[in-house]
User: Fold these one by one.
Assistant:
Number 1:
Amino acid sequence: MTLAQRLALAVYGAVTTLAQPLLRRKLRQRGQVEPGYLDAVEERFGRYGAEAASRAWVWVHAVSLGETRAAAPLIAALREQQPGLRLLLTHGTATGRAEGQRLLRPGDRQAWLPWDTPGATQRFLAHFRPTVGVLMETEVWPCLTRACRSAGVPLLLVNARLSEKSLKQAWRLKTLSQATYGGLHAVYAQTEADAQRLRQLKAPVQGVFGNLKFDATPSAAQLATARRWRASPAARPVALLASAREGEAAMWLAQRQPGALWLVVPRHPQRFDEVAALLAGAGLKVSRRSQWPESGPSAADWVADVWLGDSLGEMALYYGLAEVALLGGSFAPLGGQNLIEAAACGCPVVMGPHTFNFLEAAERAQACGAALRVADMGEACQTATTLLNDGARLAVARQGTVTLIDGGRGAVQHTAQAVMAALARP
């Protein structure tokens, strides 16, 4: 490591240490809306109680909901290859932590990844002493990377992606970024384009395996429930606005087409009430998923103007209920959400112009007919309504989802083998 890199890391570590009071304040504020952020707050600062440390942890960090779902098939494959594996699963968001609880087995441990200061990361590693660390997708932190290297913990970045926009941002702090990515043990990218961008930051790219999300299996129980509810005599065709980001529900509201029953699912749970108020304020009759009985939507719910998907962990149910989905995050310059999950549930998508977070997957989906590209929300609403009324085109699009998923599988086994190789190192 060069002198300039050591200096950049030292300055960064000093800044994040001084910023800790701001983090505490942010957690208190966020916890007022999402109480999960108030759980085990001291873990955020590298304090994990008196539990005896183990040298056998296989540590997987999945920052949020999407990364945790992507980690699920990898964790399952690792358990197959190493029976008795002790999983340490860390997160950064409350939704990721809630989803991660589903992946735990007796003997596993779940914790917050600490705020990226020299002291907190060193305490984290000293407490758990993981055998290997696996970071999902984009979660690379300077102090954590340096601490792992100093402690001799091989740190892998898997399912790695780096957009052109993120590369430009990282390049503004080139010295710090190259010190950080260059400190990783190994990187396994989703695409060759991701690999090329990562190499510019000195990342040790050792393979291009594809996207783990193609190997994820949606909840069979939720899909079965969706089929049962769609068989109701009162059922109507449903179009879905999936994982809507800030501003997109308002865009949809201004452009929605009459006739269809729309289901709006905000990306973040803290916006459920905000979106409900927006819809009701527009004079729409809103039916909220959280208020449905166990038997599902009633006849009255089926004649509502719009459904609000205000629950966590039920995207497979929502995709199963819908004939077609608009891809959230793609109508504002936010990079798009995960369209692979929709395809795995057999739901075609209509996507806007902004899909740089999943560029190759979006291009492949469009090529095989699982996704349609449009210029804006108005065209998206029109396209979705047209598909709802054209059974032949809808059937072709559904077949495209099968083609997309079948052609994308395989990353899990390659990635699991790479993690096992790191575990087996001398």
Number 2:
Amino acid sequence: MSASPTDHPDGRRHTRRSLAARVTILTALAAGATVALVAFGAYLTVRMQLQATLDDSLLERANRAVESGSIEAMTADCSLPTWAVDSADVRIALVDLDREPTVQTCYFSKHQLRLGAPEVGVASGNFDSSIRTIYAGGQPYRVVAVHTSEPGEAFVVAQSLEGQQTVLRKLGIVMLLFGIAGVIGAGLAGWAVARSGLRPVRRLTAEVEEIARTEDLHPIPVEGDDEIARLATAFNQMLAALAASRDRQRQLVADAGHELRTPLTSLRTNLDLLTQSDTPGGASLPVEARIELMDDVRAQIEELTTLIGDLVELARDEPLTHVVEPIDLPEIVDRAIARVRRRAPGLTFDVEMGSWFVVGESAGIERAVTNLFDNAAKWSPEDGNVTVRLVDGTLTVDDEGPGIAEADRPHVFDRFYRSAESRGMSGSGLGLSIVRQVAERHSGTVRVDDAPGGGARLVLWLPGSASPVPDWIPA
């Protein structure tokens, strides 16, 4: 139950206790509050019961004395009957409104009790009796006054509450001791329960710390079906997702390294040839060969630029600020087809398009559409045909490749995903994930299906209208 001081946001310092310490403290506080409430209620109940018992006893004694008919003798010669002897520290007095002084006392010599209006009221006949507490010499007395058979008289009986207070003090001490013992016991029980209940948490913490230290993403053993088991299961799911992400990133690094190595090697070779041809004494290249080398250099630079752009586009969580404007989607499709034709001159594109305008980021949409055509060109045979249809904002691209397996379809738009069939082919598995990212950014959708000819069909839908928006104003 260690604690360490930390800085509070408002500048103060506080102690951060462990969960076991907090459970123990809360259990002890709860037990202490319960014990205090019960003890207070018991104390009040006992006090009220003792008070009521004493009041009943004093009233009974006073009435018996009045009924005995010897009030004058008792107050004159202080002869106490049997009913008065049974109680300790009893005082008696007679209030007679016709005498001087009005109060005739007996055994009031130690502490003179000052009787007042309630007792006089009983003597006057205004009340049958009165009961109250009077303090004399710092000591409390319970005073009972009853009306006698004579007019203008009241018989008063008083008894010290010192004995009752002694009992209550002892009761309070006993309750306090038992309360403290109960709080200590509750604290120990809470500590034991916390240690026993938090043992699975400590095991889970040790497992997580081991994983963090070794980076070995092995699953954590799950025992039972309680909240700790649910936490371990959720953590295992997180570990599985993290392991899959790490595997995809490693595969991406391997694929990107392979994809970058090939154009870089070719680019270096072509540049070396061009440099040697320009060196004095070196073999000169024909004009046609120089032009071909320069075209290869441009193509390789464009390939590198595309790959790096794909990586940058997917690496950032939030897209950069783009220029949003009305876009003629058929025009973008035409530009994308022209670009892909230069890369795959043997392909034939069967294109039918209707008018469609969207509001969005032109470069991103063009990259997404180009990636769809690049994917079709990648899987189609060299002399194959790619069917392109654009109807009401739905762009459908059919290729003549082997199609996409059912098991791969839920993942083809995931980042870094590459199916087993595509491992030996060019590409890094980023193109279709960019298509989905662009579609979602423009509130559109993208899906995969089977083409009528047996290949793959990729369908991109972007919201818009068949006519331009002349009143469009950028936000």
